[in-house]
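Researcher: Go.
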Amino acid sequence: MAAPHSEHTDDWWRSAVIYQVYPRSFADGDGDGTGDLAGIRSRLPYLVELGVNALWFTPWYVSPLVDGGYDVADYRAIDPAFGTLAEAEKLIAEARESGLRAIVDIVPNHVSDQHVWFRAALDAGPGSPERELFHFRPGRGENGELPPNDWPSQFSGRTWTRVPDGEWYLHLFAPEQPDLNWAHPTVRQEHEQILRFWFERGVAGVRIDSAALLAKDPELADFVEGVDPHPYIDQDELHDIYRSWRAIADEYQGIYVGEVWLPDSERFARYLRPDELHTAFNFNFLACPWQPDRLRRTIDNTLAEHAPVGAPATWVLCNHDVTRTVTRYGREDTGFDFAEKAFGTPTDLDLGTRRARAAALLTLALPGAVYVYQGEELGLPEADVPLDRIQDPMHFRSGGTDPGRDGCRVPLPWVADAPHSGFGSRGEPWLPQPEDWPSYAADRQSTDRASMLTLYREALRLRRTVPGFGDESLTWLPSTPGVIAFGRGRSLTCVVNLAAEPAELPAHTDVLLASGPLDDRGRLPQDTAVWLLA
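Model: Structure:
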């Protein structure tokens, strides 16, 4: 059975719904406690029935897994914990036959410290060609005992590590993730070959991790808050890199999705010019609190910043790095900020679930593409991972104050009455599942008309079949304070009520779908969304 979407159109990505698969936690096919490619293949029918258009696989390459696979040791081989390259090729082909395109993840800013290049650089010593592929520098201070500069880390802690011969190497993330020198032609050539390697294996696109960090100030000047240009974020040289990449994608009719965290909308839009990246993640919407004025402003700003370059917006509520939507929306502060993450933050899961259901309809009604992180369609909350089971380096590099990202990466529940909720048949999952995980299992939700899974399936079915969705324009409609209302196409209306009082619905001929029941007077309760036909 093929997923129902427009077949092989060049612009499919402009309005696609793309499902993010974190392989380690999706499904365990061999029973060893770690998700794998066999597990994903076994669940392709579920993804087809869900109604998404494409699958984005986070890194599945050979890796020590210090940072969840974002420390890549070999891009041309699959980590044995997940399977083999032949299995990956089979998964890509079977997904395509089912109507699901595949998007792979690459991490061009850095590699693993186990990568053959870095091992060679350590062995070769100062001044060697091998070290020119990275950022090795002598230290400052009388005996080189101080780091070459004061750049802040993307994780907490230092960005430089000293090696036994006295030199230091740069790592914007963990020490096990040395940054590559993108001013070196060999680095560029290697990544262009990696892109071709995966496009030739049938992937439809590539997601680019930390896409604004690759190029560095050649002088490695100290960081000064508020002074532009930033020494390692959004360097102008990046655009030449992505123009060369776009030419490769065009050969294969492939697409790119950039992870671009930038506050400047004009600078952000430069990455989406017609000869660069196709789309980029919209983190402003992801981080936006559940407040009507803030949501509307974020939607307006997002559409405005994409319009000059003709690129579609992308919308996402959650991913493998952030607190799950149900938990976040049940808190007093419903926004997201890495710096504010803390243990023990109170949350009202009933409230969060109600808001997450409404947010799903809001997001799926907006113009552009939508990303759904695995488990969001099940309404999974953030899991409290025991301290002795936490694996995320963000936790350890913060000195233990940051709970890390493992809570949104706990293996999925598939079968309520099976061991480990059906994630795998034998081995204990690599991260422990909460005791209430069976209540969220996919098999139980499949037969529950009021479940989050049923809501997502119906919303995705309507998005495919009702005119007005996709990449068409949005028109704001008059509404009372606390209510968001907009039209899509000629007859579709989305209304979301964030006010305390029930909201009257605009004139309509049919209620297509609501995130919760209307009241006995046909009004929309607080934290509820509805799709209407005019």
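Model: The CA atoms of residues 182 and 188 lie 7 Å apart.
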